[in-house]
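Ticket closed. Logging final result for Type 4b pilus protein PilO2.
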Amino acid sequence: MKLSLLKRLRRPPRSSPLAENNAGNSKVQVLSYHGNAFVTGLLWHPLGSLTGYMKEARQFGRQESMDIVAIRRTESIIQAGFVSRSDGAVKGMYSLAAALAGQLGKSWLAAWRITPDEDRYALVAVLKGAVIPGCDLVGTAETIKRKVAQQLSREITFEEIFLPAEFEHGGKPIDIEQLLRPERLKREYRLRPLAFGLSREELLKLGALAALGLIALVGFQRWQAHQAELARQAALEAERRRQAELAELAQRSGETQPAQALEHPWAKQPSVVAFVEGCNALIDQLPPSIAGWLFSAAQCDGTLVSANYKRTGNSTAAEFSQAAEGLFAEAPAFYDEGNSAAVKTNLVLPLAGDEPLRDASTALADLTSWLQQQSLVPAIKEVPVAVPAPPAIPGQPAPPPPPPPDWKHFEVQTSSPLPPALFLKGIEGRGLRLREITTQWQGHESKWSITGDLYAK
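Final structure:
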């Protein structure tokens, strides 16, 4: 049965009607659907070997000077459709006949108009799963009608017939757009080269790709080297800054500091004694009045003392500015419609440096008790510690987050009519730092407030 079918479907002589497709009546054409290319006009030929069919296909292709093929395998036949690169077919395109034969069944005939504004029709016919030679083509309406009539007049019974109404042969229209959607296409419908070698065009393309790859590789290696140099420079700069910070910390604290001191905020702040002495010394030097303007408040944050004065009587801003000249770091800033003035004085204090911390429960109990003995009401709250991540080095992945610190941070606030030099005298200063001292003149007395930080384990 199989040999009989092979004989019937073998390529007929060039002069026979079935060879008309490949004898020049319709040339190879490439159609486009959904962005994919479909080739028509293949020379379909049955292959007799079940295991060596590709060898057989290569031999036939050489005989016919064709180098591109589509292979169809069914239960009853192995069939090859041949075409040449010179006809515009390249590997990766689809065989139109193979794509339809893989979906419409074993026996059918289909014709359809390719575009509404052109007299171009396509025809594909399949019998017992094999494309009928000469029935994979594109032509005019007259050519395709003649082909259809020829096939319908033969002793062939097609299970399905898909024809446009203008052919007047019955059947039903084919939904070619739906059948050739990308998701319905299989790899086996694609064309492939018969030979393992590459064409000149493919060799040129491959050479161009290799050249581009080499350029990309060289560029990538240069980029890697540049990134490595950036990383080296960044590491050197980071180490230079670290050493400079350590040197400054040692100079301002009066002794050499360990490297980990840079990670401890208390090491880079003044001690309680230094902060109180430095701030109070400048605040005490502030004149109670300047050209008729009276002192109202002062604030010290360890680097700057700012003071506020209020205008009284007929005093003027010009008089205040003239009298304050040379006393402060900057010219006065006036606010409150010119009735208040702010002045500033710079301050440089020694840093405490690093030191071992006390246990949190002990440090908190001692600090609270000390302030309570001074008849003060402290407000103490824990502050979450956020350790900054190390900066990313250019060209390198982001460093992992640093481990959580082994110390805790508490904010301390309290107020007193006495200056901090009195109610903080003799306090345990390990891990305790001041952040701000403020004083306000209220009536005939002053009110002092402090904000500080307690660091403990």
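Confidence is low (pLDDT under 50) at residues 1-26. No further action required.
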